[in-house]
Amino acid sequence: MSKPALYYATLSPPSRAVLLTAKAIGLDLELRPINLLKGEHLTPEFLKLNPQHTIPTLIDGEATIIDSHAICAYLVEKYGQKEQQLYPKELVQRANVDARLHLDSGHLFARLRFLYEPILYYGSTDCSIDKIAYIQKCWEILEGFLKDQPYLCGSDLTIADFCAVATVTSVNDTAPIDEFKFPKMHAWLKRLAELPYYQEVNGDGADELKSIFKAKLAENRGK
């Protein structure tokens, strides 16, 4: 039986969320890198595979799964029988995980993209205080969810934590997280960073993305 194949980029927070999930359940993926900055996700071959031209994209047998949140849930359901707490089957618990996944897709990642995409791809120089503050509003939401629990959905680590941390750590240089204002977030980030696979799978890629963003912003402003 062939391994599931993942089209991904280490610069991509959603890709790193899937890689964190795969590591957590001990799943070996066939990794197929895509260079976003060179537009490899816009080639006719990739568009045929995924008309939404997004990564990550998972190929598992004859199935094609797109969207990182859907992929994370799918992988735990199919391959993570011993790690079901990552995406619990109990209805209320699963609904809470789903809600945090929507928080990531609809707010956290959407606001990161609103800031990053024009600068990385279209020569923008707009890294305004308003855009940064718009991202930091999400820190208040996350702090609220973490007020009385170690993870976003309670006492157990879930795929919602993987998706959120991949986004947060990709923009926390530009939109700093005040340690005194958001102590629970800082503790949560530290907790996730202690996972044995965290730095390799998420930390390095997040640092690389932040460096590229800063360099591109400086380049655009110098034109």
TrEMBL record:
Pfam families: GST_C, GST_N_3. One of its GO terms (molecular function) is glutathione transferase activity. Residues 2-83 form the GST N-terminal domain. Keywords: Transferase. Residues 90-213 form the GST C-terminal domain. GO terms for biological process: glutathione metabolic process. InterPro entries: Glutathione-S-Trfase_C-like, Glutathione-S-Trfase_C_sf, Glutathione_S-Trfase, Glutathione_S-Trfase_N, GST_C, Thioredoxin-like_sf. Its EC number is 2.5.1.18. One of its GO terms (cellular component) is cytoplasm. It comes from the Eukaryota. SUPFAM superfamilies: GST C-terminal domain-like, Thioredoxin-like. CDD domains: GST_C_Delta_Epsilon (cd03177), GST_N_Delta_Epsilon (cd03045). The keyword Transcription does not apply. Homodimer. This is Glutathione S transferase E12, isoform A. It comes from Drosophila melanogaster. The gene is GstE12.
